[in-house]
Amino acid sequence: MTGYAVLLRGVNVGGNRKVAMAELRELLADLGFTQVKTLLQSGNAVLAADGPAAAVAARIEAALAERYGTEIRVLVLTRADLQAAADAHPLREIADNGSRMLVLWLFGTPPADAPSPAELDPERIVVRNGLIYQWCPDGISNSPDVAAFVRKAWKVPTTGRNWNTLEKLLQAIPD
């Protein structure tokens, strides 16, 4: 069994695509995953499962589509994946508030000639190792919307988590 973090894209944000965490826990347990826990109310879970991350994500996406009647993208990451994202964060030395330091994962590959979201704020946005890191010292709502930029310019959806959530997920992933 492998411990995984499960990140649902775009649920429980601004009242859209509501997924109750109790229902998510039940759904994941019904799929046969073990050590299931949810974190916060923004579509985060940890679990233990057999099989590769992509297969686990596909099973969860199919079950969510069946239950909620809409596509909800799911990213499944190992502890090593999360730790690598944390270790590579190039802005953590200047950041002083974990709720304003973001990591965005991509659901696809950007076009080779695509403009970089770092152009929006080169001192506070870095693209590295297929991830996008952003520091939002004035708050997320007062910073460039990197996810919208990537959806429009790259045609690739993202899911992001702040540093505090990343640390909670790392602590909660089953061994």
Blueprint of the fold:
Elements: E1 2-8, H1 21-30, E2 34-39, E3 44-49, H2 53-68, E4 74-78, H3 79-87, E5 101-106, E6 125-128, E7 131-135, H4 146-153, E8 158-162, H5 163-172
Antiparallel strand pairs: 1-3, 1-4, 2-3, 5-7, 5-8, 6-7
Helix pairs in contact: 3-5
Protein name: DUF1697 domain-containing protein
Pfam families: DUF1697
Organism: Pseudonocardia yuanmonensis
Mean pLDDT: 92
Strand order of the largest sheet: 2-3-1-4
Percent of residues in beta strands? 25-35%
What is the top-level CATH class of the largest domain?
A: Alpha Beta
Query: How many β-strands, per DSSP?
Result: 8
Separation, N- and C-terminal Cα atoms:
9 Å
How many domains in all?
Answer: 2
> How many DSSP helices?
5
Helix and strand composition category? alpha+beta
Share in helix:
25-40%
Order of secondary-structure elements: EHEEHEHEEEHEH
If you consult CATH, what is the topology of the largest domain?
Alpha-Beta Plaits
Rg (C-alpha, Å): 16 Å
Largest sheet: number of strands, sense, barrel closure = 4 strands, antiparallel
Low-confidence stretches: none
Shape: globular
CATH architecture label name of the largest domain: 2-Layer Sandwich
The CATH homologous superfamily name of the largest domain equals SP0830-like domains
InterPro entries: DUF1697 (IPR012545)
Protein name: DUF1697 domain-containing protein
Pfam families: DUF1697 (PF08002)
